[in-house]
Design a protein that fits this description.
This protein is of the alpha+beta class. Helices cover 25% and strands 24% of the residues.
Length: 325
């Protein structure tokens, strides 16, 4: 019997059933794909175009044409380029024969192993996204604010979250002439906003007095509110668990297109180089010398800010750091 060949040969094969399990787990309370829609690409690395030029917004007062004359010709848009490299991210787990033979329902070693490996791969992606978008150094002046003391929304007497959201919307609109359409409001922040007098006062005569995400979205003028409540263990392997909220207490406001496209402005994209036509696959092979099977999950991607300034800072987003104490 053939054994595993790390160069890709041997008896390694894509397990479609386990791949379906893995794909079905992509929504694990993670919100990174909301900010970074997936763009499937044909090559592992390539160049893509960005459009920093705004000449299309300029009125042309020389557009009249006399009968029989040629129309005035204008230059095309100035384009710039950036690159992506879809690095492979993969983890694997061994499933020994004894575990398979002894497992009782509802345990399923192959399903359980696939779910564990998938969640770890996706957690790595989610961790990278939140690390990128919560970094104040990745936003230009005017598109970020750090709250402290009385300005934090946990101070009900002095803070003004609705005003803070309006400031963010105006700052973004002044740069891209579009209103932001997504706000990532972590659980620790949302749970305090729900009781904030700024919101309660505005609904007490017209609603049941109970705030929902949709109502908050209406009041702050941002249609899509996403509330991540995902936990993370920050301890190293072998250390005592150190559990916390992955998305912390920072609010990210962004403009995200309805569909991903290389010519569409966006906060960010995930460039994915498919494997066998799929964004993520689960592979399985036999290791007879160890009397076990191995399950591996793979995804190849690069996370890129799309609307950025000359230094690479996000210009289609706004960061509110330390929104609550």
């Amino acid at each position: 019997m053939a054994v595993y060949d790390p160069r890709g040969g041997g008896n390694v094969h894509t397990d479609q059933i386990l791949t379906n399990i893995s794909v079905g787990l992509t929504n694990l309370g993670m919100v990174g794909d909301v900010l970074f829609p997936t763009v499937r690409v044909r090559k592992q690395s390539d160049i893509y175009y960005v459009f920093p030029d705004r000449s299309g917004w300029a009125p042309d007062l020389l557009d009249y044409r006399a009968p029989g004359a040629e129309a005035n010709e204008i230059p095309g848009l100035v384009v710039a380029t950036d690159t992506y490299f879809a690095q492979e991210h993969a983890l694997q787990i061994g499933v020994v024969d004894e575990e398979v033979e002894n497992a009782d329902a509802p345990l399923d070693p192959f399903r359980d192993g696939t779910e564990l490996v998938t969640s770890r791969v996706l957690m790595g992606r989610e961790y990278a996204i939140q690390l990128m978008v919560r970094d104040v150094n990745n936003y230009p002046t005017g598109l970020k604010v750090t709250l402290a003391g009385a300005t934090q929304w946990s101070d009900y007497a002095n803070s003004n979250p609705i005003s803070d959201f309006k400031t963010a919307r105006r700052a973004m609109h002044a740069l891209m002439f579009r209103e932001p359409n997504v706000a990532i409001i972590p659980y620790q922040v949302m749970s305090q906003l729900e009781d904030h007098p700024d919101f309660i006062e505005r609904i007490k005569y017209s609603q049941a007095g109970v705030l929902t995400q949709d109502i908050i979205g209406t009041l702050i003028g941002i249609p899509r509110i996403v509330v991540p409540g995902l936990g993370v263990n920050n301890a190293n392997i072998g250390q005592a668990a150190s559990i916390g909220y992955l998305w912390g207490k920072d609010v990210v406001i962004a403009w995200v297109p309805d569909r991903a496209g290389l010519r569409l402005p966006a906060f960010g994209y995930e460039f994915v180089w498919p494997i066998n036509g799929q964004t993520m696959v689960t592979e399985r092979w036999r290791e007879p010398q160890r009397v076990r099977d191995v399950v591996r999950v793979r995804r190849r991607y690069d996370l890129k800010g799309i609307m950025v300034d000359g230094t690479g800072d996000f210009t289609a987003g706004y960061l509110i750091k330390d929104a609550v104490a």
